[in-house]
Specification:
Blueprint lengths: L1 H21 L2 H22 L5 H22 L7 H23 L5 H4 L2 H24 L3 H26 L3 E3 L3 E5 H23 L5 H29 L14 H23 L1
Antiparallel strand pairs: 1-2
């Protein structure tokens, strides 16, 4: 299993890096769209859509809505930043609500446990993630911005694991994921701050203010943790371990996108509102 997991991770890293650095933004937007089509298919299972027809229709609806967003925002060519900011702001509000649902689980499941509610939650999660992916990619140094967010989430996850293993006592959301702790969250913030300091001092000293970048990074990391917990909550409600078995050793696409789907819209909104 470990060998399989490592091989899959290497292949994923090569594909993702090639897409970020080699594809022009319109092609990158299409690539991310294909990835999110797979994520929508997995989400249809999380929503307990049982027939193949209903799952296909759900994916078609999601992809059509991505097409509408792409047309309305022109994000891949000449971004309409006001439109993009409005969509990302709505996504930020959604993640505040999602965090509240995680914190109050299982009591909150009475309000969102139905099939259509869970399906709608997938739209609210994945469409802004697509927009944020593409908006960051189209920026000057957009390749590095995307890589920075991915590295930020990875650093937070690594720091949280080691801090939680060594010091974790107070559970963050025990009804959803007994392994995550407040100490782990603080460790994840510390490791992500270390990454920010390194990148800022070496690359972005002239582009971003340190305090602003740290603030955006902190909010991004906290939301990414709850993005992971949010998918865990849905899988617990559904009674499954992984969103699918599409990625050997890693589960499904959503199991790899859970944190990023929350982090990217928040970071992109921070870039628009705070860092520009």
């Amino acid at each position: 299993m470990l060998k399989q997991r490592v091989i899959t991770a290497i292949i994923l890293a090569i594909v993702i890096l090639a897409a970020i650095f080699a594809l022009p933004t319109p092609w990158f937007a299409g690539f991310v769209g294909l990835v999110l089509a797979a994520a929508l298919w997995e989400w249809s299972n999380l929503a307990e859509l049982t027939s193949t027809t209903s799952r296909v229709l759900y994916c078609v609806l999601g992809m059509a809505m991505i097409g509408i967003i792409a047309w309305g925002s022109a994000v891949a060519t000449a971004p309409h930043e006001r439109v993009i900011a409005q969509i990302l702001a709505l996504a930020a509000v959604w993640w505040l609500l999602a965090i509240a649902l995680v914190v109050t689980y299982p009591a909150s499941s009475g309000t969102w446990g139905g099939t259509w509610q869970r399906g709608f939650m997938g739209i609210l999660t994945l469409l802004p993630a697509w927009l944020a992916f593409v908006y960051l990619h189209v920026q000057v140094e957009g390749h590095w911005l995307l890589l920075f967010v991915i590295a930020l989430v990875a650093a937070a996850d690594t720091g949280a694991y080691f801090a939680g293993t060594r010091f974790g006592h107070r559970k963050l959301a025990p009804s959803v994921s007994p392994g995550k702790s407040w100490e782990g969250l603080l460790g994840g913030l510390a490791s992500s701050f270390a990454l920010v300091l390194i990148v800022w001092s070496l690359v972005w000293r002239e582009r971003f203010g340190l305090a602003e970048l740290l603030a955006v990074a902190a909010i991004t990391v906290v939301v990414s943790v709850f993005g992971d917990l949010f998918e865990s909550m849905l899988k617990r409600q559904r009674g499954i371990k992984d969103s699918s078995n599409l990625l050997p050793g890693h589960g499904g696409v959503m199991d790899r996108l859970d944190s990023l789907s929350a982090a990217l819209p928040v970071f992109a909104l921070g870039l628009l509102v705070v860092l520009k």
